[in-house]
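Re-run with default settings, no changes from the original entry. Doing this only to confirm the output is reproducible before filing.
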Amino acid sequence: MVATLSKDSTPRGRREGPTVALQRRLALVLLLCQGGITVSGSLVRVTGSGLGCSQWPLCNADSLVPVAGAAPLVHQAIEFGNRLLTFVVSAAAIAVVIAAHRAGRRREIKALAWASIGGVVLQAIIGGISVLVDLRWWAVAVHFLPSMALVWVAALLYMRIAEPDEAPLIVRFAPAARRLAALAAAALCVVLVTGTMVTGSGPHSGDATVGMEGRLALDTEMLAYVHAACMYAYLIATLCTVYLLRRSHAPADAFSTAVVLVAMIIIQWGIGVAQFYLGVPRWTVPMHIAMSSVVVAATAFLWAHGRRRLP
């Protein structure tokens, strides 16, 4: 889906350091970790383990780790395991930062790498707040949305690392296609926000002891229709982008990325429709969350193709 544009060597004029191939592998690991931790978070929610560790940064009042009897052990294990994944994501982000600095990469790449670390720290704090306020819907929504932003950053980083630092920046889309791609990205943001509202009013609060207290007091079915309408707007904007890319003879790698993105959106749409008509069974939630990361990453890939540094 994404073409590699540079060789496995240090860019000319830079000091020796990790090869571009290694940098990209590290960035790919970071991207997978950023998407994966959102899935583990959804598992916390659908298993009712959100308050398995009722304190933060400790798990329980007197212990950093789960303690027998403080809460059901399986709930403690799931919530604590999700917290531990934060260290995995942090390690991946730190590895990318070190690689970028050792290879002497350009400022843009370093900034994206550091943004990933800052985002992980921010997410840890937001996650702690969501626990301390007993999983209020707005806290959970605020916890999810930055995760999608970090997936976008990691995807953009994966693309930019492949570009030679000294090469000129080239515009590869027609202006109309570029504007439509931006419109599609904006529509995706609205889709994600309305999706958190559907979840916030739905049955999966994240912990059985919380019940519907602190949930969004709006009709879930109505919100689902609004969310679906936003999804259709996003799909239409993406399809129009594909059409303009085809019409303007855009580069093949950009066009193929756009086609793959459309396919991912359709799969996500199918999962969402199944959720609606099946009554949001637990097993569909991690699938929907995982595909959210896939769609966000693919949208970022398409956006990155619009302007690139080519060898």
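Confidence is low (pLDDT under 50) at residues 1-14. Strands lie at 169-171, 307-309.
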